Amino acid sequence: MGGGILGFVRSIYQLDTLDTRFTTPSSVPYKLAAEARNDPHGAQEGGLSKGKKAERSKWSTPEFYLYYLVFLVAIPYMFWVPFEVSRESDPRYPKFQRYLSDGWMLGRKVDVSDSQLRTIRGKIPHIFGLLVVQPLLRRVWKLFKPTRLEPGASETSPRAAEARLEQRISFDAFFGAILLTALHGTSGLKILGLLWLNYQIATRLPRKVVPWATWIFNLYILVTMKVYDGYRFKTFVNLIPFAPDSLLDLASWMDSQQGLLNRWHILFNITILRLISFNLDYAWMTDRQSGSPIEKKQLDPASLSERDRVGTPAPKSNYSFRNYFAYAIYAPLYLAGPILTFNDYISQCRYKSASIELSRTVKYGIRCLLVLLAMEFVLHFNYVNAISNARPDWSSYTPAQIALLSFFKLHIIWLKLLVPWRLFRFWALVDGIDPPENMLRCVSDNYSTLSFWRSWHRSFYRWTLRYIYIPLGGSNFRTLVSSAYSIITYLAVFMFVAIWHDVDFQLLVWSWLIVAFFLPEIAAGYLFPRKKWEGRPTAYRMLCCVGAVGNVLMMISANVVGFGGGVDAMKALWEGLFRGLSGISFLTGSCIALFVGIQVMFEIRQSELRKGINLKC
């Protein structure tokens, strides 16, 4: 019994439970990959190989036993330092006490002073309610709008697929309209207007103009909807010469009917990604009018690989306004994602993804609850946000306290994004749609700037890859000219990411820092290629680890600037680290601890390679 429970717990934390995309090559249908795993002779056919590039396991070597000893000391110390300055016995406690609220865990207060975190935490019961109600309503919809098939017709036949698409899309559009009204009230009309304008750009303008017009329109909306506070009705009426008082009163009344989320524009940036996805997928569809790629490649439309689901255009008739509206306002993913492309959404509405299995969805749900519990634990025992909001005298804190408070602030940012992303994805899985997982690794399990970008907000990374990075030509550092163009490409990607998050100079600085920190890593890859060190794998591993320690310090600095307090916070952090012997001693100890942690990160990835999994992050 004990072994069975332990096995179940381990299965909850398997990569396959998190997202089958992590264990199945994107070019291989999940059904084929699953069959290949059960058949050793079919592994090559399924696109799987058992760790050809992997090194021998180091988990039981003397080197790693030494690392375990470091972990036994470093991990408790990292938790203890922020906890100690969060206790009532700390002399600075009265300065930030007012930012704390009553908690429920072991008599502790809880730090929900971050407004975004407080909103997310307060809305979790509502999300669970919708998670139950929306799938149940879909079942009721199916009773009143059943798919009618001819006797003997297969459920995977083209007619059955069209019937399923019609059934799902009609409900998604209906429920989306209700959701839009409930969440945004009269502002739903603004969203509908923006969707209509974007649709006209895709379907009315000449093909060559569509990409440019799409980007200009959506970037304009990104900037102006925040500058003009969500386009208030009264602002527009004031532009009308001699507008009657009755019209001004009506505009004021409409501005007051804002629904449950009165600031609709704060979360609309995620919808803008779907608007761009639809327009560019539509434009690329018009380039392929010579025949169906599925027929050309002789693919099974009921068992497509993820790459084919994303890259294969839907039939032109599927790019209707209703389908577009249903996709843009799809309830489980509307507020925060993860991001699903239009092609993928239509494909999964036609044929249910084979990766959606009851046992996997249940395990994923348990994992969501465990993440929620982890966030609650951190908020009850680490008051970093309250300390920051109280505008403390940072000189009264030791370098260790400043560094570890900053470190945990990044973890709280990670958790406040992870919780809603996981919950919304869980809702989509329950509803029969499998979007990409957004967070592959813990924020602490990253040593590469490039890899960190691939694993953090992964669906957004894949979106920028498809719609910005690849269309701009990708990267190539073989010549000086191509290197300069590649840097411009990276800047374009990350400046869009910064503007997408918020129109804020601090975030633009973050985007420039991220690109600047890419360059040493890329240069190191060219200066120290793995092939030249094949005879000295241990020396190469140690060299890479030293570089990775520098990478981690740069990533922490960049994210403190972008999301953890700005340039001033980063300056306070580094000034503290070089302030006297204690700061330098802590920095030295931190580098040693990071070195050990990164060696473990290397081995985690080698363990994945031994299973035939290469996540490239």
TrEMBL record:
InterPro entries in alphabetical order: MB_O-acyltransferase (IPR051085), MBOAT_fam (IPR004299)
Subcellular localization: Membrane
Spans annotated as Disordered: 292-311
Keyword field contains Transmembrane: yes
GO cellular component: endoplasmic reticulum; membrane
Transmembrane segments: 65-83, 173-197, 209-228, 324-343, 364-381, 401-419, 480-501, 507-528, 540-561, 581-602
Bias kind Basic and acidic residues: ranges: 294-310
Assigned protein family: Belongs to the membrane-bound acyltransferase family.
Descriptive protein name: MBOAT-domain-containing protein
Organism encoding this protein: Neurospora hispaniola
